[in-house]
C-alpha cells in the first residue's frame, strides 16, 4: 500500500505530468463542501476531474499522499461524515418548517420535493473522498521524514510554531519535500504543488512572506489552497 519515495518518483519521471501532493484536509473537504461556506462546492467537481486525469493511460496528473495522511483520513472520516449528516438533517428540518409556513400563508399544500437525507449524499461523497485517496501514490514515511519533522518542531518552523507542535503536519510536509527534491534530482521539470486548505498552520498561499517560501523555492514547487486551484494549475489555466 505504501511506496518508497524513489519508486514513486521513478513512476512519475517515466510518464511526466504535474504532481499534486494532497494534504488530509484537502481530501476530506470533498465531504465538508456541502455544509461549510468556506469550502467551494466546486471542490467536488475538481476532485472528480483530477481522479479522471490521474487514471488515464498517460496520466494528466499524478496525485500523491503519504502514510500519515492515510492514517489521518481514516481516523477523521467518521467525524466528518457525521458532521455532513447532522447539517443535512438540520437543513431538512428548516426547509420543512418553511414549507409548512408557506402552506399556511398561501392556504394550499406545496410539494416538498426531494429530501436531502434520502439522496444518500454522505455515502456518495465518502466514496469520492475514498477514491481520491485510493488512486493517489501513498509514500511510506521514512525515518528521515520523522527526524526532519521533529527538527521543524524544535525550531518552530511551519507548520509547527510556538505553542503548537503539529508533528504530523511537519512529517507530511517533509515527505512532500523529499518527493520534490527527488523528482528535481531526476530531471523532472513539471509542476509540483503542495495542496492544503490548512492556512492556519501553513500560512496563506499568496502571502508575500509565506513561512514555507524558502522550502518551496528550493525545489521549485508551489503551495495552493484548494483542489479547484490545483486543477487550474494542472490544466494550465493559471501560471
Give the helix level as a range of percent. Answer: 55-70%
Low-confidence stretches are none
Principal-axes shape call: elongated
Q: What portion of the residues fall into strands of 2 or more residues? A: 5-15%
**Count of individual beta strands:** 5
Helix-strand topology string:
HEHHEHHEHHEHHEH
Total number of helical segments? 10
Nearest-integer average pLDDT:
92
What about the largest sheet?
5 strands, parallel
Q: Can you describe what's shown?
A:
56% of the residues lie in helices and 8% in strands. It is an alpha/beta fold. The protein has a 5-stranded parallel beta sheet with strand order 3-2-1-4-5, sandwiched between helices. The protein is elongated, with a radius of gyration of 20 Å. The two termini are 33 Å apart. The mean pLDDT is 92.
Amino acid at each position: 500500500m505504501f511506496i518508497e519515495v524513489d519508486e514513486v518518483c521513478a513512476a512519475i519521471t517515466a510518464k511526466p505530468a504535474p504532481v499534486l501532493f494532497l494534504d488530509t484536509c484537502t481530501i476530506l473537504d470533498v465531504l465538508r463542501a456541502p455544509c461549510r461556506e468556506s469550502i467551494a462546492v466546486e471542490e467536488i467537481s475538481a476532485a472528480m476531474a483530477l481522479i479522471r486525469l490521474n487514471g488515464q493511460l498517460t496520466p494528466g496528473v499524478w496525485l500523491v499522499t503519504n502514510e500519515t495522511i492515510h492514517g489521518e483520513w481514516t481516523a477523521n472520516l467518521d467525524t466528518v461524515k457525521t458532521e455532513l449528516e447532522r447539517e443535512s438533517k438540520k437543513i431538512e428540518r428548516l426547509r420543512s418548517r418553511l414549507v409548512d409556513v408557506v402552506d399556511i400563508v398561501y392556504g394550499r399544500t406545496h410539494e416538498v420535493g426531494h429530501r436531502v437525507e434520502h439522496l444518500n449524499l454522505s455515502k456518495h461523497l465518502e466514496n469520492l473522498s475514498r477514491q481520491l485517496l485510493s488512486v493517489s501514490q501513498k509514500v511510506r514515511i521514512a525515518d528521515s521524514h520523522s527526524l526532519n519533522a521533529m527538527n521543524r518542531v524544535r525550531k518552530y518552523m511551519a507548520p509547527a510554531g510556538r505553542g503548537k507542535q503539529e508533528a504530523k503536519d511537519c512529517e507530511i510536509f517533509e515527505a512532500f519535500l523529499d518527493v520534490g527534491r527527488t523528482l528535481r534530482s531526476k530531471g523532472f521539470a513539471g509542476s509540483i504543488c503542495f495542496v492544503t486548505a490548512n492556512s492556519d498552520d501553513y500560512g496563506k498561499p499568496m502571502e508575500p512572506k509565506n513561512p514555507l517560501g524558502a522550502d518551496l523555492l528550493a525545489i521549485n514547487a508551489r503551495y495552493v489552497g484548494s483542489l479547484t486551484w490545483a486543477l487550474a494549475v494542472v490544466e494550465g489555466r493559471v501560471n
